[in-house]
Structures are given as structure tokens and as C-alpha cells.
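Objective 1b. Sequence-to-structure analysis of Adenine DNA glycosylase.
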Amino acid sequence: MKFPNLLIQWYLQNKRDLPWRNTVKPYFIWLSEIMLQQTRVAQGLPYFLRFTEAFPTVFDLAKASEEDVLKLWQGLGYYSRARNLHKTAQKVAFELNGEFPKTYTELLKLKGIGEYTAAAIASFSYNESVPVVDGNVYRVLSRYFDVETDIASSGAKKEFTQLAAELLPKGQANLFNQAIMEFGALQCTPKNPDCRNCIFNDSCAALQKKKVALLPVKSKKVKVRMRHFNYLIFSDENENTLLQKRTEKGIWQNLYEFPLLETENELIEEELLTLMQNQQFVPNEVLNIHWYNSETTVHKLSHQHLNINFWKIGVKGKLANGINWESAKKMPFPIVIFNFIEKERF
């Protein structure tokens, strides 16, 4: 078939020079695939380089503390990826003698590795004939073949996976899978693709039918939850503060933050002071309180928008579990808190 051959030729001429493409070692390919989930290459590349410098082997990653891993991951988001990455490294290092499974089916058994990541590792490292299906692949296939199936529907993944599998050229799964993903990232982009200079402009069904902007079909919309976070930055006579670890499941699990009051709406100082009087974590007598922000910080996550305010709370005496700022900065934080510390450190 013309499609896979042209695609591979295009890839060999146009692919980006990325470090995980210069190896077939599953450790590096696994790292890159986990990091690039929900993340642009430009954002993920510096993290990949820092991780491979700090943890050049799966044994190094396995032996690291979770806090060290989360600190290095700080700012990349979706922190469950980092926690699963660490657990999987420990399994591979300590139970599998540092050897990653060599088949798609066995790779699926590792924590944090789903169908897409397993297919990527199996095909890129071992050239196993399994298709990868991500957002780029949905887009390329739906446009080229004019597939109107809603990619958010229950049967879409199976349909597109089957189509991609039929296109896989024998013995070239590694090249084809990387080629179709790269083509979606660079050429067949979500908005305003350069169809005039596309290798498929004489055979793409969506282009011929003037449907490029309409495909892929995705009808399901994400419902966004609005939340209001009030972070309390306590400061005692030694300018020490308090931190707490988010241990409950949900966003930022096992990262550190200031004591938090979540409210239904934004507060003024008097309202916050009244609310604090009923909280056990308020350690000492409050001397003063003021709002740090010049305006509320809005931190947007995929399913929720956090309206964040930081409050400086001066307290009498010394905090029993106070921590100095030099020590605090070494902890892994959500990036919105880390940025606040870097900018507003008093």
C-alpha cells in the first residue's frame, strides 16, 4: 500500500532529532513515553534530559526516594505518572533484574503502562508488530480515510487500532509507528495543517471532501470543576513556616503544600480569620494577616480550575514544626506553589 511507504519516507526525511530516537533501550523509550503523555515535546525534553542525567539506569531510578523523583518531575504535571514511574522502576530493577518485558502483553502488566505505552515500547525497542494509537494517530487516520467515528466513543479505540494494524508494513512496525505519530505532530496538525505541501494531498479523503477541519470527530466535552484554595503561609519569629504533605488521592498526591483551606468562594481577610479560628492546624496566636496576591492566581488543570490565594499569617513565638525556607525549597511542590515561593520569597 502507498500510504505506509510514503509515510516512512517522509519520516526519514523530516523526523526531529530527539534523544529517545537514538536508542532502542526500553528504559529510555519508556521514560520518554511516560513523560510525553499529555505533554508537548518541547516541554518534556528538558525533563527527559534531567531524568536521564540523574537516573542513567533503571536501577538508579529505583533506588531514588519518591521525593527526589517528584522534585525532578515538578512542573510536568499529572504527578501520578511520576509515582507509577518510580514503582515500575523498582519492579523492573528488583524483581526483573533490570530487564523490561520484551512483549506487548507482558509490558501491559507493569504499573502505569497502558495499551499505547506498551505498544510504543514493544514496537520501538523490539520491533513487535503492534500498532500505536494516540491523538496524532486518530487525527491522521480519520482524515486520510474519512473516518467519522467519534474518537471519544467506546468503540473508537478498537476501530482505529484495527485500521492501524492493517497498515503496519511487515518488519517495520518501529518505523511506521514513529512515522505516523511524527506526521500528526508536525504535518497533520490539529489546526491549520499545511495540506498544500502534504505528501498525501492527492489521496487524503478529508482534503478532497473539504472536511479536514471537521475531523477527527470528538463530541464529548470535559466538565470543568471550579475550586477555591486558600494557602496559609505561617511565619513565626524565626521566619519559619509550615508545610504539609498531600497524602489523599487526587491532584498532587505526595507533594508538599502550605496548610490549605478550601472554600466555596473567595474570601476577604475578616472571613478567613473567622474560618481559621475553627481549625486545629492553626498553631499559635495570630498576630497579623494579609493577602499576598495582587490578584487571584488561576491554575488550570484538565478537569478543574483552581482559584488560588496565598495569605501571610504572622504568628506569635516559634512554630513547633516550623521549617526554614532553604529546607522547604528542596521539597517537591505543585508548580503553582513553587513559582509563588520563587517569586515572593520574603
